[in-house]
Every structure is written in C-alpha cells, then in structure tokens.
C-alpha cells in the first residue's frame, strides 16, 4: 500500500519552486502511515502493478510527457491523482484532481479591486502557451465585464517587450494583476527604478505568495493556497480510494485561495463585499494564439528573482540571519561575533551562497540582495519562520 509520486522535469517557469514545497509536504504523509515513493518514470517501479492498493500521484497536470503513465494506470486499474490540472481530459482518461478554482479566485480578486475603487485592471505578463495563464485570464474575463483582450499584455519574446507594450497604456489602469509573483516583482522593480510615483494610487496583485513577494522592497500582495492544504487533499483522496476503491469514479477537490494584502495594495484587507459581486457573467471565453516557446528563467528581468527565490527556499534560520547581517553592512568578524559562528563556519555559508547565486564575492552578493530584498521585511520574515524567538536587539 503506497502513494507513488511521479516527478518529471518541470516545464513550468512558475510552479517549479512551489512544486518542491508541495511534494516535501506530501512526503510527510509517511508519518501518517501512508508510504510515499518518488520516481521519474513509471517503468522504473514495476511493483506499482502488484500493489493492490497503489495510487499514482502525478506532480504536474496532464501533459504529453505523462499521458502514457495515466493511460497505463487506467488500463491496470490503478487510481491516478493529478495536481493542478487544467486540461479537463476526463473524456480521454479517468483521474482524480486537486487544483485551485480559478473562477472562485477571479471573483475574489474582482471583489478586492472593486471594493477599493479599482475599476480598470490590466493582466500583465500573460504567456499564451501556459494553460494556467489562459485559465486565469479566462476566469477574470467572465467575472469582470470591464476586462477585454486589450487589457491583456503578453510576454512573447521577453519581459521588456511586454513592458514596452504596457508603458504607453500605464495610466489607463487602476491596478495590475499578474499570473505569478516573479513577473509581478520584476514589474515593481522596473517602476521602482523608473517611476516610483506610479505606486501611489494603484493596486498590484500576484499569485503564489513566494518568499520574494514577502521580502521585496515593496512587499507584494498575493493570492495563494497552502502546501498543507494540498497534503490534506491528497490524504483524503488517497484514503477514499484505498478504502472505497470500487465506489468512486473521480474525486475532485478545489483548493481555497487566500488573499494576503501587503504594501502593493496598501495592506488593505479583503472585506466582505457580497453586494458588489457581479450580477451577471460572460459565458464566452477568451481565445489566444500560441506563441514561440519562451524560457522565463533565462529572461534577464526575471533571472535574478528566480535565483534568490531558490536560494531562500532551502535556507535555514541561520542562513537568513547571515544574509540579514550582510544587508545591514556588518563585517565578517562582526557577523561571526553576533551570531556565535566560527570564521570557518561563516566561510562555508558564504561559499554556498555565492555558488547558488552565481556571485564571485561578498560585495557582488550584497549588491544582488540589496537590489531586491528589504532588511525590514527580512527581519519580519525571520521572526515568522522562527516563531518570534529571534532577538534582533543586538543586531
């Protein structure tokens, strides 16, 4: 009796780091007597076909790389759970699904903008080849009758091209909605350097609540679900399938997204505003042509943000404290004294940072950190991850 987790190389620029967190959380089900086995190719684990209570969890939505695995499991009576699938191919395969509900999220975002007097909203950084981007814009289009194709700004060859398209229209909008936090931070960073007054009366909202969303100089409001919610949903479906294997065809669980207000929306809370829910919705969908393949992670405007997110994602509290001391301008000797580290231990941390960030020395690393991270927000984040036990009075 095992939960087999199929991990494939991510083709998603956005979900890669989030997926790591979710799988780490799901693997903790071992503590609840649900054994988990992670693999990259279904042919590598023949025992899945002899395990009478096997369940396959696909860590990505249905795509051309994993369709054969779902097909094999269907043919052998092995239940399948897909994470964050937007393809809706139940006509072709039988599978269970766990995903956020873009329609509910779009209604929440619409209410939030509307309640705060933000009527005209742009969707910036749309990538036509991403089913997640398409689903988000389609849902927002249906709920917001003021939203049209002209309000969608596309990433085709890169971030700068998208910004050039947006720049001449920037004053037409009261707010900007982004498909993910990384593009949102690149956008905020661009205007922070070129036109900081643009932030004064407008709202900016990202998706997924990344670490960088919390730490950026203008902390980013974001919409997200928790990794714990994903784990709980996997556990419930797994138990239903193992205990009632012949009673269910497909189980679908919608994850609840929560809006987290920060500086980019003036920390305005989402009030109960049912009275402004749209009286009617459009039934038609938005249609976009596919574009040439584009690698977000290699875009100069986004690359450093991805690097820092991945660096911080696996950082321990001590790593964060060292980064905080660097940002505050402390010398190596002061850092070792205040954090009770040996010089050798600090060098180990430093070399690890430099390698992951692609920096040649401390000066280069601090320059990168200072570009994106606020010491104040980092202090707040360290207090959060250490449950407020970190004493900053001596730092």
Explain how this protein is built:
37% of the residues are buried. The longest helix is centred in the middle third of the chain and has 17 residues, at 227-243. The chain is globular and about 65 Å long. The chain is built from 14 helices and 12 strands. The chain starts with a strand and ends in a 10-residue tail after the last helix. The protein has helices at residues 15-27, 67-75, 102-115, 131-143, 159-167, 181-194, 211-215, 227-243, 300-313, 317-327, 332-339, 343-357, 362-372, 375-385; strands at residues 3-6, 36-39, 55-58, 80-83, 96-100, 121-126, 152-154, 175-177, 203-207, 221-224, 252-255, 258-260. α1 crosses α8 and α10 packs antiparallel against α14. The chain is of the alpha/beta class and 395 residues long.
